[in-house]
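Work through what follows:
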Amino acid sequence: MTEIKDYILASGSPQRIALLRQVAYEPKEILPADICEDCLLYEKALPYVRRMAQEKARHVASLRPNENILACDTVVVAGQKILHKSKNDDEQRAVMQMLSGKTHRVISSVCLINKNGKLSQRTVSTKITMKLLTPQEIEDYVACGEWHNVCGYKIEGKLAGYVKRMVGSYSGVVGLPLYETLSILKGEGI
């Protein structure tokens, strides 16, 4: 398989765009997939994130046939609970309390549908252990606002100082696992 450099990114995430630019794989077009992201009844995190990445890619592929489409989905998972974007300070405060002093997972799945309709997908799970947060640290994080429009939190911001341990893909936690993404775009096995 030949290397793919001409692709459409099915995401408007500034984090994903910045990560792709970092490794000189900038998309030729950015077309966010406007799809329903609700979980199915009893759907667990891994099948959910894989399905979302595929559905985003398929949606944009239907709008841009005969193009290479790259999509990704990332979720924060505490126990079996998928954490979605907080709508307000109270929801984010509850998220921070839930993650405080515990280990949680961030799952990121990247999906490519090439010009011929072939689907390739890679998924990575990262374990993150947070320090036990004081009430003031929780309030400070909520007040800083960097959690707006992201799932759970923004690892590349203030929260990085609260991470005790991380095992997995840092870029996957940011929103796009670069090793897996480049493996797909270069047509390599993992």
Observations:
- The helical segments are 14-22, 45-63, 89-99, 135-144, 170-174, 178-185.
- DSSP finds six helices and seven strands in the chain.
- The chain has a mean pLDDT of 94.
